[in-house]
Amino acid sequence: MRLDGMHHITMITGDAQRVVDFYADVLGLRLVKQTVNFDAPEAYHLYFGDEEGTPGSILTWFEFRGAARGRPGAGAVHTIELGVPHARALDFWEQRLAEHGHAHHRPARDSLKLADPDGLSLELVTADPHNAPLTATHHAIPPEHAITGVEGARAYIGRPLEADAQLLTDTLGFTATDTGGGYLLDGPTRRFRWTYENTAQHALQGAGTVHHIAWHAADSDHSVWRQRLLDVGMTVTPVIDRDYFHSIYFRQPQGILFELATTSPGFAVDEDPEHLGERLCLPTQHEHLRTRLERTLTPLRNPRATANAGLSDAAGGR
Ligand code: ZN
């Protein structure tokens, strides 16, 4: 039984449209689902990823409109590493970010660092050749330069990592790659680099901060993972149906919220795969709120819909 790398990472934003513009247009990911926070349905929950929303490519945001910026600190993920196929692609991304007015710097040939509009740190890195590319289609991004999925993430901790190390290696199956906090989750189909770094700074949750990270569990293993975590004394939630996957949640010893999410059923369960992310999908228990939510949630401009409309206009207005 092995976890298959990372499933998704979830952030907080104060402005959903700004996230859509940056991730679905500038970075060229696909908005694969517009839904709401199941526990707070007045807030958007937006999912981005490759064309299908494959685990390992997924980044998601809760929108708490107007939320003040937070700050990463102990017990929080502070940087997300996005893959590109080769270092040459970073030349393309340097130019594209400059054209869109996004500050960035290139500390090494195979690294490009930037912050998203909420201040979240991102690093574009060359992908592990073991990881099959999980790409989305964008009219202005050549497929050979497209982002290929999430390669790694770095989190701050405030205390020695002994208990965290034990949870990762003995319980969850990570491998330590160095003695300073570097780990690899080497799954059946995907690898993920997970790094702990020390800080004295306290985390402040808000826009631009990471809410949780989900690891990818095979459907058939999910309940076994839950039992294994209970057996080592973790406090774990019951299995929760998130419509697109099933989830359990627990906090690792320094407070980072971990989730284990299943493969199935995936994002095509309530939408045509051709039209993922184009309309508001509500979980059954909140469907009765649709009229109100469609009035109160800010309508989103999806850059893909706009680009497709432009293309069909050019093709004769169909
Ligand atoms: Zn999640």
Topology:
Blueprint: E1 6-13, H1 16-26, E2 30-37, E3 40-49, E4 58-63, E5 76-84, H2 88-99, E6 104-108, E7 111-115, E8 121-126, E9 150-157, H3 162-171, E10 175-176, E11 182-186, E12 191-198, E13 210-217, H4 222-231, E14 240-241, E15 246-251, E16 257-262, H5 290-296, H6 303-314
Parallel strand pairs: 1-4, 5-8, 9-12, 13-16
Antiparallel strand pairs: 1-13, 2-3, 3-4, 5-9, 6-7, 7-8, 10-11, 11-12, 14-15, 15-16
Give a structural overview.
- The protein has 318 residues and is an alpha+beta fold.
- It has one domain (6-316): 2,3-Dihydroxybiphenyl 1,2-Dioxygenase, domain 1, CATH 3.10.180.
- It is built from six helices and 16 strands.
- The protein has helices spanning 16-26, 88-99, 162-171, 222-231, 290-296, 303-314; strands spanning 6-13, 30-37, 40-49, 58-63, 76-84, 104-108, 111-115, 121-126, 150-157, 175-176, 182-186, 191-198, 210-217, 240-241, 246-251, 257-262.
- The strands form two sheets. An eight-stranded mixed sheet has the order 2-3-4-1-13-16-15-14. An eight-stranded mixed sheet has the order 6-7-8-5-9-12-11-10, covered by helices on one side.
- The model is unreliable at 312-318 (pLDDT under 50).
Helix content: 10-25%
The second-level CATH architecture is Roll
Strand content: 25-35%
Main pleated-sheet profile: 8 strands, mixed
Give the radius of gyration.
Answer: 19 Å
Distance between the termini: 50 Å
User: By CATH's scheme, which homologous superfamily applies?
Assistant: 2,3-Dihydroxybiphenyl 1,2-Dioxygenase, domain 1
The spatial strand order of the largest sheet comes to 2-3-4-1-13-16-15-14
What would the CATH topology be?
A: 2,3-Dihydroxybiphenyl 1,2-Dioxygenase, domain 1
Uncertain spans = 312-318
CATH class: Alpha Beta
* Structural class computed from helices and strand pairing: alpha+beta
Average pLDDT taken over every residue: 94
Number of helical stretches of at least 4 residues: 6
Give the overall shape.
Answer: globular
Q: Supply the number of structural domains.
A: 1
Oligomer designation? single chain
Number of strands: 16
